[in-house]
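Hi U.,

Before I forget, here's the chain from the pilot set. I'm dumping it here mostly so it's searchable later in email.
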Amino acid sequence: RCDKPVVNRVNGMRIAGGQEIGMACDFTIAADTARFGQAGPKHGSAPDGGSTDFLPLYVGFSRAMESGILCETWSAH
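Structure:
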């Protein structure tokens, strides 16, 4: 627990472990070029570390499932 807000700045790609850490932050500030996504299933590993908990809260269950299966990236827009 942190008493101060944790801010995540993204300028580039936030994929896999970086995505999981970023979703645990209070705020995300993203550049226009920022890309987000999951890569674990593409490489044969499970999306652990928080992706299955946080991602559905942010993008909805269907989009989170699609991201986990297809491993495509999406923009900040």
